[in-house]
Amino acid sequence: MAYRYRCGECGFKTSWGTQSQGEQQQIAHYADRHAGIVPGGQVETNTKNPDGGSGCLAFVVVAILLLLLASSCHH
Q1: How far apart are the first and last CA of the chain?
Q2: Do 5 and 42 touch, CB atoms closer than 8 A?
Q3: pLDDT by residue (tens digit) across 15-46?
Q4: N or C: which end of the chain has fewer CB within 10 A?
Q5: Residue 35: its pLDDT value, please?
Q6: Which residues pair with residue 13 across a beta bridge?
Q7: 42 and 22 in contact (C-beta within 8 Å)?
Q8: CB of 12 within 8 A of CB of 19?
Q9: Transmembrane ranges (predicted)?
Q10: Burial grade of 26 (CB within 10 A; 0-12, 13-18, 19 or more)
Q11: What gap in Å lies between CA 58 and CA 9, rounded to an integer?
Q12: SS3 string of the chain?
């Protein structure tokens, strides 16, 4: 799962990444742009997993389709 943090003071948002990467980017943003304010805002999650987590599922589907095709061609 990927995370993106949105600033509670302005329109800044971090890039998609791990939870710790987002937290670090948000803390750095607040230190640079909103010194003295406790970091806040919203956290978005991307459950589509941009790291290719569904690649295994695609492989299984293709393998099943190939098996079905092979079995239908066998007389």
Answers
A1: 45
A2: yes
A3: 999 999 999 999 999 999 999 999 999 999 98
A4: C
A5: 92
A6: 6
A7: no
A8: no
A9: 52-70
A10: buried
A11: 41
A12: CEEEEEECCCCCECCCECHHHHHHHHHHHHHHHCCCCCCCEEEEEECCCCCCCCHHHHHHHHHHHHHHHHHHHCC
Tokens in use for 75? 């007389």
d(CA 55, CA 50): 10
- Distance between CA atoms of 42 and 69, rounded to whole angstroms? 48
Question: How many residues comprise the chain?
Answer: 75
User: Which tokens sit at 71?
Assistant: 């079995």
pLDDT at 58 > cutoff 90? no
Provide the token pair at 14: 């971090």
